[in-house]
Amino acid sequence: MRVELADIISCENKEMYKQVEIELMSFDSKLGRFPIVKKAPFELKFVNEHNKRLLIQGETEVTIAIPCSRCLEDVDSDFSITIDKEINLSGSDEENSMEGLNYMIGTNLDVDQLIFGEILVSWPMKVLCREDCRGICKRCGANLNTTECQCQKTEPDPRMAAIQDIFNKFKEV
Questions:
Q1: How far apart are CA 118 and CA 79, in angstroms?
Q2: Nearest of 77, 99, 72 to residue 27 by alpha carbon
Q3: Cα–Cα distance, 149 to 23 (Å, whole number)
Q4: What are residue 109's DSSP bridge partners?
Q5: In this predicted model, which residue has the larger pLDDT, 166 or 137?
Q6: Are 33 and 92 in contact (CB under 8 A)?
Q7: pLDDT digits over 25-72, tens only?
Q8: Are 32 and 26 in contact (CB under 8 A)?
Q9: Is 31:67 a contact under the CB 8 Å cutoff?
Q10: pTM > 0.85: yes or no
């Protein structure tokens, strides 16, 4: 969603409140596509300070389904997003783009791009469905949290493979 800020930028010391809906349906990044399960509208506050700075403030909650790092089951991960941005109004659009303000296009604020950046910064390194998640079997791919597979649990040390072959040759039947 885009919010037009020309009115507040043109009036010195003006404040404006706007309730904004997030239009993102999924979080798409190089890591993959993750559906947004729950999103709440949030109130944004815009303040023009002496035609020098534009302050943008607001808070919202977003829930994204992220696969568990061990068993690949979807886990609902909550993101508390706090927006507290300051934009220099005396600078040009070129300066803003050099500062990484990809959410400001002229006098329009791209709310979805702003939210995307905040989620990206707070993305977790590892997501687990539960602390004692057993993951999936390396051989058959079964989810070890829900079923027991019949695969061999111990893996021989590859450095001992030559000795294991000797024992297999002389094994009594």
A1: 9
A2: 77
A3: 43
A4: 3, 104
A5: 137
A6: no
A7: 999 999 899 999 999 988 899 988 887 888 999 999 999 999 999 999
A8: no
A9: no
A10: no
Say how far apart CA 43 and CA 66 lie, in whole Å: 26
Q: Using an 8 Å Cβ cutoff, are 45 and 59 in contact? A: no
Nearest-Å Rg of the Cα atoms of the chain is: 26
SS3 assignment, position 141 = coil
Place of tokens 């004692």: 132
At position 43, the amino acid (one-letter code) is: E
Unique residue bearing structure tokens 């990484």: 100
Strands 15-20 and 42-49 turn out to be antiparallel
Distances (CA, A) of 164 to 122, 144, 153, 160, 171: 48, 28, 17, 6, 11
Could you tell me which residues come within 8 angstroms of residue 170 by beta carbon, excluding any fewer than 6 positions away? none
* Residue type at position 6: A
| Beta-strand runs (E) in the chain | 2-4, 15-20, 26-29, 32-39, 42-49, 53-67, 74-88, 104-105, 108-110
What dihedral angle (degrees, nearest 10) is formed by the CA atoms of 83, 85, 89, 92?
-100
User: DSSP for 104-169?
Assistant: EETTEEEHHHHHHHHHHHT--S---SSTT---B-TTT--BTTT----S------GGGHHHHHHHHH
Q: What percent of the chain has pLDDT over 90?
A: 38
